[in-house]
Design brief:
It contains 15 helices and 15 strands. The chain is globular, with a radius of gyration of 32 Å. Strands 6-7-9-8-12-13-14-15 form an 8-stranded mixed β-sheet, sandwiched between helices. It has a 3-stranded antiparallel β-sheet with strand order 1-2-3. With about 475 residues, it is α/β, with parallel strands linked by helices.
């Protein structure tokens, strides 16, 4: 700090401030007015008088006159030091939520939020422990142990918030830890550049798009190791049910049971098996007939021609599909695509949440804020576009057999829960899916929509509790009498 000059009751100073992560900036000239001081006397003004307790953000170096009696020049200096700050600037709003464009999602975290890094992505998650879920946990509750932790997988557009009402009750039911995490593009998990941030899982593996289904599966398996568990119970809601199934098929030995809640999985159509009956031969002379031989040769030739045409058409179809996907991906990543995404979320975001409930009047402001809070994070729209592009260009899923053919391979216990008034995924689809999985249990919650864990948390936890007792033989502990 240098002294430029002294006038009556005013001192001209040159102040150099060093904001975090920026170059030194000299802010000239600051007019300070000191009441009762007519001359410059350094002992009166120690350096501690000008210290700052908190770092000053960039572009906010505003120094005003210390007294209203200072000259009008003080206000001029104040205006100059404000720099590029624009008055009356209106913030953007999406789905009735101010767009704060927060760089670090952790600034929006709750007191029980946790973050861990997986392949360069900061995954937001929460953990509920049976030992800490309630300060007065009784012996009766602790006796009901399943000994398998539970991982909760949210659906499209949701986050850890959708499990808030059932995490602690589920911890009491299982006697184990309950973990829920935000998949990339949702919640408070960091938004990364998909093109620049494709990282290999290990040195011998290919790059994995952080917004792809494969990454969500790998993150799920990572949290199994994070919990130091041999097996876990996977609970997937809506689109999260598909992540749970893919995680099971990738590592069936790590999954103790599957619980699919309003699964957004198309149930296979019932197909009648075609039985070919043997036809009796009309005589030995028929097989030796020259006309029959010629017909057989012609049939084989025609079959080969048809197969060649089919393979050619399939190749052309794949090529056209690939070009279509690339073109659509380019459009989505353009400024036009981002604008469309923002318009859709703005117009239909909160409406979708309300329509997911049986009684939309029960959707409180707290619920809407829980779903729209992630929209404050900078880059949420680009992340949502990358998630959509990853779904369109998911070559890993195309290389696998159709899910309908793999459902019969599930050998672990399965529970499917749905609401009877689900407007997004009809309950009849969930019932057909249950029939396609041998030995699975199916439960319907009445007067309930697409979010049973939010709209009917007590009934949902009760159904899960019943299922776990049947599967793992967890008996109810005898009631304890209080001795007076």
């Amino acid at each position: 700090m240098s002294i430029y000059g002294v006038e009556s009751n005013h001192v001209f100073l040159s102040v150099r401030l060093t904001p975090p992560k920026s170059e030194h900036r000299s802010l000239e000239i600051v007019r300070l007015h000191f009441n009762g001081v007519s001359k410059w006397d350094p002992p009166h003004f120690s350096s501690s008088s000008f210290s700052f307790q908190k770092p000053i953000p960039e572009h906010k170096f505003i120094v005003r006159a210390a007294s209203a009696s200072s000259s009008p020049m003080g206000s001029d200096y104040s205006e100059q030091l404000q720099g590029a700050k624009k008055p009356n600037r209106k913030s953007k709003r999406i789905a009735d939520m101010d767009q704060d464009e927060i760089e670090d999602p952790s600034l929006l975290a709750d007191s029980d939020s946790c973050f861990c890094e997986f392949n360069g992505v900061q995954l937001h998650h929460k953990i509920s422990d049976a030992d800490s879920s309630s300060p007065d946990t009784s012996m009766q509750e602790s006796a009901k142990r399943v000994d398998f932790p539970m991982i909760l997988l949210h659906g499209f557009g949701a986050s850890v918030f959708s499990w808030n009402r059932v995490m602690k009750p589920l911890a009491k039911v299982t006697g184990s830890k309950i973990l829920a995490f935000d998949r990339p593009a949702f919640g408070l998990t960091s938004r990364v550049n998909a093109i620049k941030h494709k990282t290999p899982v290990n040195q011998n593996s290919k790059h994995v798009n952080p917004y792809s289904m494969m990454f969500s599966v790998l993150a799920t398996l990572h949290f199994i190791d994070f919990l130091a568990a041999q097996k876990v119970i996977l609970v997937g809601h809506s689109a999260g049910a598909l992540v749970a199934l893919d995680a099971y098929f990738d590592a069936p030995e790590r999954v103790a049971a599957l619980i699919l809640v309003a699964p957004a999985i198309l149930a296979p159509f019932a197909m009648q098996s075609v039985v070919k009956e043997n036809q009796e031969s009309s005589g030995s002379n028929t097989s030796k007939n020259l006309f029959s031989r010629l017909a057989s040769i012609l049939a084989k030739f025609t079959k080969n021609i048809v197969q060649a045409i089919v393979y050619t058409m399939k190749g052309m179809s794949d090529m056209i599909s690939s070009l279509y996907k690339k073109a659509l991906s380019s459009i989505l990543r353009s400024s036009l695509g981002l604008t469309v995404i923002r318009m859709i979320i703005d117009k239909f975001g909160t409406r979708a949440v309300r329509s997911a409930w049986y009684d939309s009047n029960q959707v409180s402001d707290h619920v809407l804020q829980g779903y729209t809070k992630p929209l404050k994070v900078k880059g949420w729209d680009k992340a949502l576009v990358e998630y959509t592009v990853a779904l369109l260009t998911d070559s890993a899923s195309e290389s696998k057999p159709p899910l309908a053919k793999r459902l019969g391979q599930i050998s672990c216990p399965v529970l499917i829960v749905t609401g009877d008034t689900d407007r997004l995924v009809p309950s009849w689809n969930a019932e057909k899916l249950s029939r396609a999985i041998s030995g699975s249990c199916f439960e319907i919650i009445k007067k309930c929509g697409h979010l049973p864990q939010e709209e009917k948390p007590e009934e949902f936890v009760g159904i899960v509790d019943k299922f776990l007792r049947q599967v793992f033989g967890v008996a109810q502990a005898p009631r304890l009498q209080v001795v007076s």
